[in-house]
Amino acid sequence: MNPYETIRILKGIGEKKEALFHKLKIFNMEDLLLFFPRDYEERVYVEDLSKAQPGTKVVVQGMILGPASQRKVRSKLSITTFECQGETQRFRVTFFNTPFIKNALKPHVTYYFHGKFRWGYGTYNLENPEYVDKAEDLLEQRFAAIYPLTRGLYQRDLRKAVESALEMADFIEDLLPDELRQQHGLWSRQEAIRAIHRPDSMETLLQGRRRLVVDELLEVLAGFARMKSNNTTDIPVVWDEETEVKMKALENSLPFSLTEGQQSVLSDIQQDARTGIRINRLVQGDVGSGKTVVAALAQYLFHLQGYQSVLMAPTELLAVQHEKTLKGFLKDFGVRVVLVKGGMNKKQKDNVYEQIRNHEAHVVVGTHALIQPDLTFARLGLVITDEQHRFGVEQRKRLTEKGSRPHSLVMSATPIPRTMAHVLYGDLDVSQIETMPQGRRPIQTHVVGNHRLKKVFAFIQKEAAKGRQIFVVSPEIEQGEEEGFAAEEIYEKMRKGLFRDLQTGLVHGRMKRDDKESIMKKFADGEIDVLFSTTVVEVGIDVPNATVILVLNAERFGLATLHQLRGRVGRGDQESWCILATDTENEKTMERLQVLTESNDGFYISNKDFDLRGPGDYFGFKQHGLPNFSLTDLKKDQEEVETAKTLLEQLQQWPDQKPMEKLLETFQSKLDFLD
């Protein structure tokens, strides 16, 4: 059978149900079998409910004793109840908002129910259970797959469709030669797919998963290996004695000494230039580690070669900050820095575009506005992307295509472990700035309950009285369904109350660009004491006078975001504080927040975030323009990563190159899909 055969060939899938499958991105037979379960439930048959643990799911036999009783509690809640006789005791079966069930279950007929049960009102009760009239229909599969769903589709729909597809699974192609597969103790792909959907034991499930994880990793590693092998460039970089002297002059002009980490990254870039390859490097550095200085030195290197460079930032605030910083470093060395941003009038836009087109502008800074088709460069030699995970594949590609295979640096202040970086950014060489500039004080971080906020606000007033500035960050702009501190609400309350004698401001993502810039500029200029905001201040604002950041409902933020927010303070020489306010009683959430009190090291924090949340949640693969991993957990699957690396080396040397070609084809198709 053709793997791209539509799922309409399966019994029970008509036009309406097919549309629901499409919402899950299931269009054909291959999509269906590669739509993996999110979890499994073990089905256990019990005769006596008194011997089972309340709150757990069980399979139990029961005969319906009579007609159902049905009542409507309120407009959107109806309850249907059946009394049943089990093997050892009576119990009750309750269904919510399914009135049709009243006629589906027949009196004096025995059914097998699977559901969570509890004890209450003097009887055992099963709520919304599955039901069949043959025990084997429930118990044949001990570990039942639980799939992600969309409204209108049920587990039985997915299970039935997958079961039918597995019966025709002869179309599943195995790319791995049998010799290599057996050498690494891997199951066939067909066996693995069957095991992941219908495991008969935990061992079966783990073996099936292992093979499919290796396949996922192989696709990505093969794709990145091909991208890296094409790392040629038409832009030579000469690092001679004259270049060395001029680069040293810029370095000596800086108002500080470069850290060991910055020197190391520059050494990596210098080595790339001398080998004549296309520079294609990820620069990871913690908040405040000095990545912009490295960018400035790299841009000056390309200026000396007669080339322009461009730096793309994810927000206008950050782009403006970069323009100001780069001008400060480069203005005395004949380098003209210009800013491209949205909202420029036609005269401003034409003027800047002409400077770039005529090579009067040497360094160009901007946001997504840089990828406009009418913006052309005279000689683009270096592309730098800041916080690159915020850009998609297509955006980066369109910027790079404005030059003839220009060199590339990508910068990230959300560091990830080096081993994971090699998988997630396999086409890039990796450099890390692991040392912070001298004089940066550690930021004191405290997790406090909301009942202590009065004391926190009093502390903020004391800091403001000293002339310091404060951030107050909320998770949302206005009050939503979930109770908490909304930025607009807390701003209005505080500016009229405790902070009425202070200068306050509010900034969030829904504001007009000019209004947002005006507020941020006032804060940067010291005209605002307390700035209320959402996470729009996560990047792009450098206020050395800010000493306190209070994050409300801190439990709603990831560790990476909280660490970035914390980096908004402590940028001067004063003692600084980050206060995380929460009323959560969840132990895991508190454990996660306490990580920030243990360390100011972004690499340590990212490792802990991987441990606690897993890379899928933490990393946001699609935002990085990478194929999404369905099964792989980079923190837990290190053995599979090594297996995939070894297999890739073997396949690259294998006489038959069809497996490699197919891997590359699959990788490219997924990138195209994301674009």
From TrEMBL:
Pfam families: DEAD, Helicase_C, RecG_wedge. It comes from the Bacteria. InterPro entries: ATP-dep_DNA_helicase_RecG, DEAD/DEAH_box_helicase_dom, Helicase_ATP-bd, Helicase_C-like, NA-bd_OB-fold, P-loop_NTPase, RecG/Mfd, RecG_wedge. Residues 452-611 form the Helicase C-terminal domain. One of its GO terms (molecular function) is ATP binding. One of its GO terms (biological process) is DNA recombination. Keywords: ATP-binding, DNA damage, DNA recombination, DNA repair, DNA-binding, Helicase, Hydrolase, Isomerase, Nucleotide-binding. It catalyses: Couples ATP hydrolysis with the unwinding of duplex DNA by translocating in the 3'-5' direction; ATP + H2O = ADP + phosphate + H(+). The keyword DNA-binding applies. Residues 272-433 form the Helicase ATP-binding domain. Its EC number is 5.6.2.4. SUPFAM superfamilies: Nucleic acid-binding proteins, P-loop containing nucleoside triphosphate hydrolases. The keyword Coiled coil does not apply. Plays a critical role in recombination and DNA repair. Helps process Holliday junction intermediates to mature products by catalyzing branch migration. Has replication fork regression activity, unwinds stalled or blocked replication forks to make a HJ that can be resolved. Has a DNA unwinding activity characteristic of a DNA helicase with 3'-5' polarity. Belongs to the helicase family. RecG subfamily. NCBIfam families: PRK10917.1-3, PRK10917.2-2, recG. This is ATP-dependent DNA helicase RecG. It comes from Alkalibacter rhizosphaerae. The gene is recG.
